[in-house]
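Lab notebook, bench 4. Still working through the backlog of constructs that have no structural model yet. Next entry is a single chain of 174 residues. Request: give me the structure tokens for it.
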Amino acid sequence: YNGFNDYRKYSDMSNKNIHNKRYFLQVGCMHSRKNLQISVENFSRLQKIEDINLICIGTSDSQKNEFKDIPGIIFLDNVSDIDLYFFYKNAVATLYPSQYEGFGFPILESMSAGCPVICSNIPSSKEISGYMDEHMFDLQCSNELLHLMKKLMNDSIYRDKIVDHGFKRINFFS
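Model written out:
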């Protein structure tokens, strides 16, 4: 497998509160196959009942323009490696609704920072994450994504279980 940024190297650093509100994170969402639209739609639905942000790192200018009027979405570019670690570490979860991938680095990066990942159930995401189907969502059923977002926000036992799985899973890739 390809190498990835294993953020366990930063685990001894004291926590840096990089954002003042709970948030979901999507990294590397510039290409249409990354499905930022699905994340935004579900975020908008969730935001009606929760005080939450969506932080998008690595977006195109057209995406910024398309979603600029939706409150709570924050677009960032050129984030340092250490800051990216803290964005992962402090997020409720990383959203990864990709249509297809060769290899999903954000899945492993997120897991290595102790952040759960909500990913689509495409074959490459299944292989990388090692998740069972109930921890993933079908791209044709966006309610599943919203359900998992709510569950990770409100069920700390479930979230801890997914984080623990991630720490174990990355050992297969390092």
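Notes after review: Helices lie at 36-47, 61-67, 81-90, 105-112, 123-129, 142-154, 156-169. Residues 156-169 form the longest helix (14 residues). Flag for follow-up if needed.
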